[in-house]
Amino acid sequence: QEEKKQLTLKVEELERKLETTSAQNIEFLQVIAKREESIHQCQLRLEEKTRECSSLARQLEMAIEDAKRQVEQTRERATSRERAAQSKMLDLETQLSRNKTELNQLRRSKDEAERRFESRLQDLKDRLEQSESTNRSMQNYVQFLKTSYDNVF
Description:
By secondary structure, the protein is an all-alpha fold. It contains 2 helices and no strands. Helix 1 (2-73) runs antiparallel to helix 2. Keywords: Cell projection, Cilium, Coiled coil, Cytoplasm, Cytoskeleton, Developmental protein, Differentiation, Flagellum, Microtubule, Spermatogenesis.
């Protein structure tokens, strides 16, 4: 009876540990989901910046075409329009340069976040595998105890 009581207590303790491990696994999965959402948001921002750069490139091309048409109309008007177009082009190139720099920074940030996420994900997978291995060992041990108990009584 005493042995039965001790075995029952051990089984209950192992079941509590199993529940705790399961709860931790659920928490790890939630953390992974949040990280994936964060990466998705970064990708959306990256796509938005890419579209903005394309729009700025189109605006730059339109400004250059406009400057060429003005040169054809009159030399005098072309000179003043060309200065305005050059100024606008410089502003657009500066803005494009800033956007490219920001895009590169976002890409680096995204890559770094992905590396950290992959590392964390691998760590979590390893922990999960270790936890599952421990769970299996505990279950085998409990099964052994049950079998031993049945054989003894």
